[in-house]
């Protein structure tokens, strides 16, 4: 299914969204000690495509606020999964907090012992637009969502055409990228992949490097040429993102 955004009024992600995600996984890890959480925010009428990201922090930065630049070591990705289908906010956060914590196939499920070392990021996706071409987006502003023909079904002339090879040596998916829920609407004829807006500048990529990496992430393992890049369907989008650490969640919960 292509990305959708049924909410026309922009709304920033809130710290309470992260706190709700923490409460969800606390309950799943220890349901006898932690009751089924209820959201502390009003989500009536709010529907968003969204991603939930879990990072694990070094011991020296665990108790420090996420917003403190001095305490901002490079976190290690622990899980990141989302959806381009617009969900009611609380429902989507609960579902993808759990999926990204316990069902991201790249990692073992998050454990109780890891909770104090976790940072949660919530990204609410907005402003989806079709790009005029594969370069019609801005690094640091937009995320990209690419569609390309499955090489098993695409015309051989396209897959063999062009004369400009990828110069990027970092075309494979980096450790900090996010997975997303793929729908059956994409079908076997189309490969898809996305990078959230913050991933591309974090990696230091140019637009071409990001596009080439997204193609590899989507499963394209052939020769990347300029003709193939031009054949891509690319959608750009923006993201409202908030991050909070487990210690901040505990302090917030104690103040309720």
TrEMBL record:
<dbReference type="InterPro" id="IPR027485">
    <property type="entry name" value="AMMECR1_N"/>
</dbReference>
<dbReference type="InterPro" id="IPR036071">
    <property type="entry name" value="AMMECR1_dom_sf"/>
</dbReference>
<feature type="domain" description="AMMECR1">
    <location>
        <begin position="6"/>
        <end position="253"/>
    </location>
</feature>
<dbReference type="InterPro" id="IPR002733">
    <property type="entry name" value="AMMECR1_domain"/>
</dbReference>
<dbReference type="InterPro" id="IPR023473">
    <property type="entry name" value="AMMECR1"/>
</dbReference>
<protein>
    <submittedName>
        <fullName>Related to AMME syndrome candidate gene 1 protein</fullName>
    </submittedName>
</protein>
<dbReference type="Pfam" id="PF01871">
    <property type="entry name" value="AMMECR1"/>
</dbReference>
